[in-house]
Amino acid sequence: MIHSAIRKKDENGQDVDLEFKFGVEDLRRVIELGDSDDDPTIIPERLAKELWCRMGFTGHINGNMIKTMFSSAYRFTIDCVVHSLSHRKGAYDETSDYIMNIITCLVLNRPYNISKVIFEYMLENMRAGCNKYIMYPRFIMMMIDDQFKDIPKNNGNILGLRNMKSEPITRLTKGTHERVKRLICKINNLAYIAPDKDRWRHEKNDSDNEDGRMSEMVEKKTRWWFVRDGKRK
């Protein structure tokens, strides 16, 4: 549970502090990501990296996950997830392990407990000290608005939404094959069922085989991946 205080003016114009607290269930209800407390937060590293290859990843399998190393069909999706759900305040060109978990589960239509991951980074940030950069400010605003309906708004503190313009879309799709353009941020099959047993492809799939590249993979110790026997590293 995160505990804080919200300061507002009372009817006499005096400052008063109101208790502000929320847990992961409150966060899940307000931001409506559609996950569940029963959903996993860690997945096999091999599952994520096998999917990299199917997403057109051109870098080394043990290297950094750079957005530009993925095919155009997925690059914009990765960019959106990094900017909206990452706990960083910079270095947006590189994706971290839990961001790749989210993308993996989105692509494969697998459940993933995004709300818990976000809450853990919020909690970690709070424990780090008051001088740390506030992570997920938009989600914090949503939590405050949910609990305090009459808090006056300062326009200078409101984060405005900016819709995607044609320029970045054109930049992303420039020189891209027409079939790939149609797949950008598109769910091709709403009834798609994820492969079982932590696999990244269905049996008898006739697309490119990733085994050659995966033979070079060296498993890493990480907070959000586990090894083949299912244990957290």
Account of the 3D structure:
By secondary structure, the protein is α+β, with helices and mostly antiparallel strands. 37% of the residues lie in helices and 10% in strands. The protein contains 9 helices and 6 strands, in the order ββαβαβαβααααααβ. It has helices at 24-31, 45-54, 72-85, 97-108, 114-127, 137-147, 166-173, 178-183, 211-214; strands at residues 2-9, 15-22, 43-44, 65-66, 94-95, 225-226. The strands form 3 sheets. It has a two-stranded antiparallel sheet. It has a two-stranded parallel ribbon with strand order 3-6. The two termini are 26 Å apart.
Task: Produce a short descriptive summary.
The chain is α+β, with helices and mostly antiparallel strands. It contains 9 helices and 6 strands.
Strand order of the largest sheet: 1-2
What would you report as the Rg, rounded to the nearest angstrom?
A: 21 Å
- List unreliable stretches of 5+ residues: 227-233
What structural class do you assign from the helix and strand content? alpha+beta
Residue-averaged pLDDT: 78
Q: Specify the number of helices.
A: 9
Proportion of β residues? 5-15%
Q: Using the alpha-carbon principal axes, give the shape.
A: elongated
C-alpha end-to-end distance: 26 Å
- Helix content range: 25-40%
Largest sheet properties: 2 strands, antiparallel
Record field, number of beta strands: 6
The string of secondary-structure elements, in order, is EEHEHEHEHHHHHHE
